[in-house]
Amino acid sequence: MEKMPAWADAVLVPLISLLLAAILSALVIIGIGEDPIAAVKLMVQGSLGSTYGWGYTLYYATNFMFTGLAVSVAFHARMFNIGGEGQAMLGGLGVAIVCLYMPWPHWSLALIFATISSAAFGAAWAFLPAYLQAKRGSHIVITTIMFNFIAAALLNYLLVNVMRPAGAMDPATAKFPEATHLPTLHDMLAPFGIAFSKAAPANVSLIVAIIACVAVYFLIWRTKLGYEIRAFGHSESGAKYAGISPVKITVIAMLISGGLAGMMATNNVMGESERLIMNATEGAGFIGIAVALMGRSHPLGVFLAAILFGFLYQGGAELALWTSIPRELIVVIQALVILFTGALDNMVRMPLEKLFLMFRKGDA
Amino acid sequence: MDFLTMIQVLDSTVRLATPLLLACLAGLFSERAGIFDIGLEGKMLAAAFFSAAIAAMTGSVWLGLLAGIAASLVLSAIHGLASITFRGNQLISGVAINFLAAGMTVLIAQSWFKQGGRTPSLMGGGRFNPIELPFAEALSTVPFLGPIYAELISGHSILVYVAFACVPATWWLLFRTRFGLRLRAVGENPAAVDTAGVSVVGLRFAAVAICGLLCGIAGAYLATGLQAGFVKDMTAGRGFIALAALIFAKWRPWYALSACLLFGFLQAIALRYQNIDLWAFTVPVQVMDALPYILTVVILAGFVGKAIPPRAGGEPYVKER
């Protein structure tokens, strides 16, 4: 018997968790001697009050959509891909190679190939953990954590010793050529007569992210592969009985997941910094975990959660600029969201289920 | 590399291995009881901050140590609540704890000290200072063994000796006491322990608490022994190296010691030399950084002896009704 109606499971539980996280965050702000209401006002003003703020909010949201989808796809196959960070780093390498070493006539062509390349690099970085999980039973969480660190060391090596232009001091590649620069929302909205901030980094890869959300929806709920992934996630033995190969599904789900995480690089590397720098991912791979948990691994949920986290990120940056609250407040909020929507899920769910059961008994 | 340099490298190996060892043993207790803990990093970080902060404010490193342990225990309690009481996902809880510590330490540091997320530098009684073992000075002139005793064995802070003493203590507790037997059983087959009338929840909470205690000491050592004060993200992935060491050691205390010494040695080498010339080609420093993780993946892949985790690890225990 269903204990709770579907809408309560999909909407009420995450909202209550979010509310708990918000209350605790407010207590934290009070604890360090600041005013939470003023802080929220400042965050809203800074991230949604101008097209400049929106530009940054959507830029961050684009990153989180990719990494959130990446974690979601793995969740559907009941795997926890903690390696989004490393996969996104490698995606950046894929973008840099395409942009630096090939001549491009137009950004659109460059974007298509950079997307493919970043996805291929991200997927390649997820392949070994996936293969080891499928064939040797090595725990994917541990291997993907290890691969994050290996990716950081690899990128560090490549940027310092190989890809750094001669004479440059900072560990980064050369600037990508003009033809690969992606149009920002300013460039895209200007023909329609909509004025959008020129300085904000949100760019055309937002569209790619939205397409990815739709594509993941169709993949998971409208294709045979998606059905197999979900079946495998619900019950491995059941899936095996139905003739679904666990090895195949594990590897394919992780390749898709890694590819999505890698595609994030079209936004942050190609769209924003326009060169590959150290720490380009800025922890977005980990925020994908919070986004996927909040979005209940559904593309629409991921889309909304990504925008929420984009808002938090841009708002947090504004807070750090205008008050004495450091940016790390966002890390705390992120932790609380992961804690309440992920680990303490049952704490919210169990009383709620009891409540619904009580109502049902009342009806009968 | 001459003899004295080697002694110095080994000396810093011991110091760098200490936090790894404490965290590794912490993870050992938790995972042997069936609770995966990828929040070692966060617990160490929180302990590092609170130990440094309290030591800076009171001038007493011992009060600092207690504060560090307390902070780590609080995070352990959250982990226990999430993964034992509410049967949540232990991995997700660990991730949350890491972020919670990373954010809160800087937030509180900024609020208390206003130094950009760090604590003031610790001096005098605010740090764990090196202890000279007896006759170290007198024996240092003895060839070969003298320098080893004076440089390598003597002259560490008390927590280093505590960490190394924890290895036999852990072995004894886990493999020679009733509590240890039950703790290991609860990580392999909790239903059997439950049938025997022993509380699964109680045992698991005890294991998680021991884990918090050891992580607390590890963090306090980082901030008050190895370094003089807290800086943002000062654990720098040590919690994950400890996790790697735990797998490398296949969840056994004596192997944990050698794994931590090996990884500490790699860190000491990477710290001392930028690039290492090995006959024909140069080993870049990044390879040294990545080596613990690569080795762990190789071990996990089961090509060099298979690492089999405790059977009930990561599974919340549900009593059948």
Concise structural overview:
The complex is a heterodimer of chains A (364) and B (321). Chain A has 364 residues and is mainly alpha-helical.
What are the main properties of this structure?
heterodimer, A: about 375 residues, 16 helices, B: mainly alpha, ABC transporter involved in vitamin B12 uptake, BtuC, two-stranded antiparallel sheet, 13 helices, globular
Number of strands of chain B: 2
Number of strands of chain A: 0
Radius of gyration of chain A: 21 Å
Cα distance, first to last residue of chain B? 65 Å
* Category from helices, strands and their pairing of chain A: mainly alpha
Write the CATH fold name of chain B: ABC transporter involved in vitamin B12 uptake, BtuC
Whole-number radius of gyration of chain B?
20 Å
Task: Label the structural class of chain B.
Answer: mainly alpha
The general outline of chain A is: globular
Number of domains of chain B: 1
Q: Explain this structure to me?
A:
The complex is a heterodimer of chains A (364) and B (321). Chain A is an all-alpha fold and 364 residues long. Chain A has a domain of 238 residues. Helix content of chain A is 75%, strand content 0%. Chain A contains 16 helices and no strands. The model of chain A has no long low-confidence stretch (mean pLDDT 89). By secondary structure, chain B is mainly alpha-helical. Chain B has one domain: ABC transporter involved in vitamin B12 uptake, BtuC, CATH 1.10.3470. Chain B contains 13 helices and two strands, in the order ααααααααααααββα. Chain B has a two-stranded antiparallel sheet with strand order 1-2. In chain B, strand 1 and strand 2 form a beta hairpin. In chain B, helix 1 packs across helix 7 and helix 3 packs antiparallel against helix 4. The radius of gyration of chain B is 20 Å and the shape is globular. The N and C termini of chain B lie far apart (65 Å). In chain B, 53% of the residues are buried. Chains A and B meet through helix 5, helix 6, helix 13, helix 15 and helix 16 of A and helix 3, helix 4, helix 11 and helix 13 of B.
